[in-house]
Amino acid sequence: MKKICYLADASNPHVKKYCNFFLKKGYDISVISLNGGEIDGVKVYNFNANVGELRNKGISKKFGYLNNIGEIKRLVNTIKPDIFHAQYASSYGFLGSLIGYKPFVVSVWGTDIYDFPRNGIIQKLIIKHNFRKADYIFSNSVDMAREANLYTDKRVDITYFGVDMERFIPLENSKDDGFFTFGIVKSLEKKYGIKYLIEAYEKLYKKYNGEKDGKRLRLLIGGNGQEREALELQAQNSDVNDTITFLGRVQPEDIVRTYNSCDVCVFPSLREGFGVSAIESQACETPVIITNVGGHPESVDAGKTGIIVEPKSSEELFRAMEKLMLDDKMRIDMGKSGRVFVREHYRFEDNFEDISKIYDDVLEKYPINK
């Protein structure tokens, strides 16, 4: 049985997606995680380094997870995987590069390639070092691949996460007929630009006195994060506080119903490696408004499944929200086209079969256990 060892956060849903797919392919899967987590059928080794809590610490504390490198190296050599894959180019990528096991695959996810190497010369050198040590480099979008190629001349394979089209589906009778609903499900972090959505929504609400064809306007904001308190304060200080609902963290079993409850989903990100939330929403036949940043535009067929606006512009958001609110035919057609678009380009099984073919290439070039 072929073995894969992931250096990755075992609590992350995309890591779980990787594990579940390749378990079904017959691989033996291990995950070495710095942030805990459990995955059915997978041996997870937890080192609980709390990498997220160290994000804003000094550079020496940020690399505290390296204290575990000796134990992790012994563990990897004991597992002896056929594929050693770091899911994140900075922390996990650096750890994997220092272990020196081959074949070594590195995936870039977003902030690890957009932000980390720009935080200082040390960080830039680390990313270059990690890519030098990597035998394969994966990226979750074309834009991130271009960004990765600022630090390496190596080929970067595009490996989308994809959407489970059997899970993310349109649901009948999921919308409240008394409301016209705008929504977002996202971590409440500054980089996702949610304050601009609140500003745009307030302007729209005031222009139409909070109604559209007898339906009351409302805004649903799902997620938690460092900006929650500031966003709640912004809402409280607005004239539309009673029509904005903070849902908190949306549980996985509730996320499909949440997308379906919205007439339009709005994702006003200031930075975005791709647009997983946008393709999930479109799979549910809910049209989207997204921003022209990073790999975000790759997640829509502009003008057919959603509208793209410039970031940091509540005015552009307002106009796009108004357009989709007023034009019922456009909104419904975009929703139906969105599901077709996602099925054609981002169907989970198709995207992961592409990854499986790359893994086959890895195994052919590096026949460790033959």
TrEMBL record:
A Pfam family matched in the record? Glycos_transf_1
What is the protein's name according to its record?
Answer: Glycosyltransferase
Protein source organism? Peptostreptococcus porci
- Swiss-Prot/TrEMBL keywords: Transferase
List the molecular function annotations (GO) for this entry. Answer: glycosyltransferase activity
**Glycosyl transferase family domain: from which residue to which, for each copy?**
173-339
Superkingdom of the organism of origin: Bacteria
| PANTHER family from the UniProt entry | SULFOQUINOVOSYL TRANSFERASE SQD2
Provide the leader sequence positions: none
Q: Which residues form the Glycosyltransferase subfamily 4-like N-terminal domain?
A: 3-141
